[in-house]
């Protein structure tokens, strides 16, 4: 990844990146439920800290892109696309079958982004954001439902 590098973040150091995680998930209470599980990487662009990405594992075959956040100066530079491309290859090599990701119904830019990088819409978790302590609004739309996407990492053989 030209100019983009990822460095694994050990569990004991993850709280140092809370401000970045809050860029993508507005509830510290919710972040605290997943910050210590899975794989977390700090993202550098031209040797400057640009953001973080965190993956959790739903099963032995499913990896979830739980949080991806870039500081505003690093957005729209293609860094997110590079992170996703790297993660798809990395977790395919690790034996994962598919990657899933969810975003709010109000996150119009994220919905477009995930489709542009090859994810397919597979479902909606209705009222997902009702559990958040405060209402979330983006572009004048209240976040109520989680839109779920997935991308196969391996070819699925049809059942005979």
UniProtKB/TrEMBL annotation:
Coiled-coil regions listed in the entry: none
Protein name: GNAT family N-acetyltransferase
Species in which this protein is naturally found: Ornithinibacillus caprae
CDD domains linked: NAT_SF
Keywords: Transferase
Entry superkingdom: Bacteria
GO molecular function terms attached to this record: acyltransferase activity, transferring groups other than amino-acyl groups
N-acetyltransferase domain ranges (all copies): 1-151
Transmembrane feature ranges: none
């Amino acid at each position: 990844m030209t100019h983009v590098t990822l460095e694994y973040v050990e569990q004991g150091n993850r709280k140092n990146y809370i401000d970045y995680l809050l860029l993508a998930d507005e509830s510290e209470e919710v972040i605290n439920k997943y910050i210590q599980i899975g794989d977390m990487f700090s993202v550098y662009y031209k040797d400057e800290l640009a953001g973080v990405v965190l993956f959790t594992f739903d099963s032995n075959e499913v990896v979830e892109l739980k949080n991806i956040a870039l500081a505003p100066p690093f957005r729209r530079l293609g860094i997110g696309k590079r992170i996703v491309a790297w993660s798809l290859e990395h977790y395919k090599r690790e034996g994962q079958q598919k990657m899933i990701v969810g975003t709010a119904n109000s996150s119009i830019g994220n919905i477009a982004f995930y489709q542009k990088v090859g994810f397919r819409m597979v479902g909606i978790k209705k009222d997902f954001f009702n559990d958040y302590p405060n209402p979330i609004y983006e572009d004048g739309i209240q976040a109520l439902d989680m839109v779920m996407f997935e991308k196969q990492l391996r070819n699925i053989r049809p059942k005979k």
